[in-house]
Design brief:
The chain has six helices and twelve strands. The protein is α/β, with parallel strands linked by helices. It folds into two domains: about 190 residues, Dipeptide transport protein (Rossmann fold); about 50 residues, Gyrase A, domain 2 (2-Layer Sandwich), CATH 3.30.1360.130. α1 packs parallel to α4 and α5 crosses α6.
Length: about 270
């Protein structure tokens, strides 16, 4: 049995403030340790349920956060960036299930450190007129490969998003959002026990969860933070500008939509802010 784990940082136990998130931050070294421990709990649970191969994809920022020297054996780690498929690099149809660790809720939610891929560029993202965040987009990519998302960990807000999106998914709320930069956190030992327990149940009961599918073709609509970003990103072939800061793109499948979205955000992020 083969399991895929995509791990982000904003939804990790104890992480509540930007100083945790980059190597310029005072608490970044602590966050890397927390992140690795949350991943290891999920790996242990998956192994107990019979997983024989586990691939972990570091999916935060520069994607070099997980401490490989402390990673639970026999899990393997995809680390570094850029990656063609970013947060879902390495996933294909050979996997039996996916687990999302340390995820967080979409922009304009009440979740801890909420945003949609890029807090510097994206105000709102819609796919086929449904507002989505990273959880939804990545779950649809897993579904493209016929891989079900079995479990999601993060704060209580992303847990709710996952439950509303995927029937039967296991969720672990390691913290309760009290604001964008404030949370009531579980004791780490308790959080790790819950992650391990639910990863075990999720993998053991994987056949009860169906891969998430979306109707094609796909209409991608991106609201950027300002019109200057739209000025920069509208040069991408196939993009239609439908508002001062709103771009639209029609994709044949979710992989094309993902790559188009990432390209648009890179172009938008290139603009000098004033």
């Amino acid at each position: 049995m083969k399991i895929y784990i995509s791990v982000d940082m904003e939804g990790i136990i104890g992480v509540v403030y930007p100083d945790f998130l980059t190597n310029r931050g005072y608490d970044y070294s602590r966050a890397r340790k927390f992140m690795t421990e949350d991943v290891n709990a999920a790996v242990r649970g998956a192994l107990m349920a019979g997983a024989q191969e586990i691939i972990v994809n570091d999916s935060h920022n520069a994607m070099t956060n997980v401490l490989v020297e402390e990673l639970q054996s026999p899990a393997k780690l995809i680390t570094g960036s850029p990656k063609l498929h970013s947060m879902m690099e390495g996933l294909d149809s050979t996997f039996d299930g996916a687990i999302f660790i340390g995820y967080y809720s979409k922009m304009n939610s009440r979740g801890v450190l909420n945003h949609t891929f890029s807090s510097r560029t994206v105000y709102k993202l819609k796919l086929n007129n449904q507002e989505i965040g990273e959880l939804e987009f990545n779950a649809y990519i897993a579904g493209f490969y016929n891989v079900p998302v079995l479990m999601v960990s993060g704060d209580d807000q992303v847990a709710r998003e996952a439950q509303n999106l995927i029937e039967g998914v296991k969720t672990v709320a390691v913290k309760e959002a009290r604001g964008r930069y404030t949370a009531l956190c579980l004791n780490p030992k308790d959080a790790h026990s819950l992650i391990e327990e639910n990863a075990y149940k999720a993998v053991a009961e994987k056949d009860k969860i169906s891969p998430l599918q979306i109707q094609e073709p796909l209409e991608l609509r991106i609201t950027l933070l300002n019109s200057g970003m739209a000025d920069a990103a509208q040069i991408m072939p196939g993009v239609e500008r439908i508002g001062a800061n709103i771009l639209q793109y029609t994709a044949t499948d979710i992989i094309e939509a993902y790559q188009a979205f990432r390209t648009i955000t890179i172009l938008a992020g290139s603009i000098i802010q004033m």
